[in-house]
Amino acid sequence: MTAIIIRRLLQAIPVLFIVVTLTFLLVRAAPGNPFTTEKKIPAEIMEQLQKEYDLKGSITHQYAQYLWKVAHGNLSISTQYRNRTVNEIIAQSLPVSMVLGSVAYFLALLFGITFGGWAAIRHGRPGDRFIMLFALLGISIPIFVLAPLAVIFLALKLNLLPAYGWGSPDQIILPALCLSVPFAATIARLTRGSLLEVLKLDFVRTARAKGLSEDAVLFRHALKVAILPIIGYSGPAAAGILTGSIVIETLFGIPGIGQFFVNSASNRDPFMTSGVVLVFSSFLILFNLLADILYFIVDRRVKLE
Amino acid sequence: MTSLLSFYRVVRNDLFLIVCAVFLLMVIVLTIFGPLISHYRYDEISNASLQQPSWTHWFGTDVNGRDLLTRTFFGARVSLTVAAFGALISLTVGVSYGMVSGYAGGRVDNFMMRLVEIIYSLPTLVLVIVIVTTLDNPVASLLHRLGMEESYSRLVLIIVFLGFTEWLTMARIIRGQVLVLKQQPFVQASLALGQSHVLILWKHLLPNLAGLIVVYLTLTVPTIMLDESFMSFLGVGLQEPLASWGTLVANAAFLINPIRLYWWMLLFPAGLMTLTLLVLNFLGDGLRDAFDPRVKK
Questions:
Q1: Is the Cβ pair A19, B122 closer than 8 Å?
Q2: What is the pLDDT of residue B100?
Q3: At A77, phi and psi to the nearest 5?
Q4: ipTM of this predicted complex?
Q5: Residues of chain B contacting A, Cβ within 8 Å
Q6: Can you give the residue range of the structural domain that contains B286?
Q7: What is the value of pTM for the model shown?
Q8: For a FRET experiment, which of A2, A212, B42, B107 has its CA 20 to 30 Å from that of B24?
Q9: CATH code of the domain in which B230 resides
Q10: Which of B250, B286, B260, B218 is nearest to B11 (CA)?
């Protein structure tokens, strides 16, 4: 298995290389300049700026310089947030996004598996229908609709939680909850479907015939197998939470990496944009690998390729 | 045609799906004709800023005094257009990719599916944001040279690139079904009679995949709609004065404050958008349960 993991990690290098190359060349090749402002900048100053940021000369030259820095772990200096290195900005904002994302992911798993399992047990009864209706609603309602509603009702009308900001634990709850809803809904649907399949299988009947309590059958036997599609969904879920958190960060004023990304992409900051894309891509590739390994550990029938 | 008829039969026998289909039809009709019969233009600015719903403005007005009813249905026009054309592109790419991969089998299949997995593990929406923001100006000048409206450059970019990112699920499903179908006697018989591979794909496999394609098309449409509104919400999609459901909700969301609530600005566009997405998902789910051979009844 170690060999396979190493191979997968090595495979990630060319993928990341292509992604960074495309991003950098795209941002630089398109007309427009990160230093353009409302006021016209004198030619000498523009030249000085370009020299300072290694954005002078031909595009291949700029790209070579950038790639050399990236290979040494230096993501260069942001042109949008002057005087700050991309490494520094990412080091400050990424942990914030990570906390938000992981709390949301945890909530999605907790609510999704609980409600999905409960719906499966009450299959066909009103409780099941009700949960499934809510799950479909959760998938259909965009988080940028849900979040303002939550702010209006939970924060402004009922005054339960703060509507804005970041730092104290109670400021995490509302954004993480809003972010988790579509994923909790999807996980609930997956859990229900898969548990219904598993409960029909022979080994469950055997467990029941042994005289095990219904709880033991469910938690110790059935759920262990039924969880597989949820592990399979974890890769797409991580990608979704990552993009979703950009919206949530904007709405709740959270100083995560999402805002920096949107600003730098709109303002043609080649280093910040490429840097964030690199971080996002590496994170997702790593997460997908972890999910595959977990899948392999839980289900011995699967071969890791 | 036969598969379309059986769709009609499934929908006809399910009252709930009929309600969904009728609702969707109503939204489409209002979207096409709504902005035409309205007394206001979508970008018509007036002094009646942030007015509550009234007889003159049924959905109220926004910050710039623009009629929200007109803007909501103009936004629907943009959102539905993006979703429809984007889904069509994703359908073309996904179906042909999946069919070739499944039919070729072996190494080609291995390689093509490996590629799909790699793209799956990339933040595609983030990449689309980068592409749309950087290619905005070049495409605008291209449109200008072709004599078309420049402000539509982002619309075109979003349609094309969302279409080219949301085809992965379709490709996987189609490939799986082709793997099963190509073992069937009628395909083998056709091969033995000397039919070319292209014609087998086109004449024998495609008609058998039609049901599955329509099902996953109804599920791709809401996905792309959501992606577009997500980008417009962040300000990297459509730009003012153009409107889509995403920009309308964004305008409302950033006005939320503890002192005064402009509820109509959020309620109407967000409500219509959520209902449309819900109905599309209901339809997609219902059709999938009826048609997808992998869903057991």
A1: yes
A2: 94
A3: -100, 140
A4: 0.85
A5: 118, 120-127, 129-131, 133-135, 137-138, 222, 226, 229-230, 233-236, 246, 249-250, 252-253, 256, 258, 261, 266, 270, 273-274, 277-278, 280-282, 285, 296
A6: 2-291
A7: 0.86
A8: B42
A9: 1.10.3720.10
A10: B286
